[in-house]
Each structure stands twice: as structure tokens, then as C-alpha cells.
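ARCHIVE CARD
Drawer: 12
Card no.: 0347
Subject: one protein chain, sequence and derived structure
Cross-reference: see card 0346
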Amino acid sequence: MIKLQIVGNLGKDCIVKEVNGKNVINFSVAHTERFKDSTGNLKERTTWVECAYWTDRTAVAEYLKKGKMVYAEGSPDADAYMNKENQAAATLRMRVQSLQLLGGGDGSGSAPSSAGTTSSSASKPTASAGAAMSDVAAADDLPF
């Protein structure tokens, strides 16, 4: 089994759709990595993951707004294609199995605890809604 985990911010508000009688929440997550190149210049690289969360619990969608920080894990998929400039490109997708709201993004700092953790399998502990992304990403023993 291959599992993808991402902590990042939503790039736009989520979209809830019904497909063949089942609900899916579509959203995109951006993770930005900052580093220094070999010459010492500060660089930034953003990775986007297109997410599909198949769930009956769509109430969480009202909290999935542009800028909100989330933790998502699931099964990855990648699609290669030729872009408009006829250059090779790829899209990274994930079928979400577990989703946690981490707060932040619009300055509100938190969401109601009932929306903090959603999972299609087992329930997992929620990260602190006020936790900074660096605190969450730097922990060696994440509780989820």
C-alpha cells in the first residue's frame, strides 16, 4: 500500500458533488517548501495535490475554505499529460481517507471540534487547532 500525507493550505473553497448517488468533496491543497539552493539563495517550491474525499459526512465542507490549513492522508495517483505549450506535465491526486482541520488561514484560529476530525475508517486524535504548520510538520511522532 502507498500512502500520501500532506499538511498544507486549501487553494480555493471546496466543491461538493454527488456522483452516482455518493457524495464527494473536491479540494486542492498546497504545501510550500522553503530552502536554500547551492548558491545560498532562498528558494520556494509549492506542490499542489488535488483531493477527492468520498464521504457521507459533508458537513465538514463548510469549513474547507480557501486558506484553511488541513492534514489529509490517502491513496496517491499521478497523471502525466502534455500542457498547452506541448511540454510534459503531471497532476498529483489523492483519494482522501482521513482529513483533519488544523485551523488558521483566515485568522479565526479554530473550527468547532465536531468538524476537527473526519475519517472514513477509524477516528484519530485532532491536532491543536492553533498549532503552527512548522510545529505539526516537525514532530517526529505525529499522533495520526
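Annotation on reverse: Residues 36 and 42 are 4 Å apart (CA to CA). The beta strands are 4-10, 15-19, 22-36, 42-54, 69-82, 88-103, 117-119.
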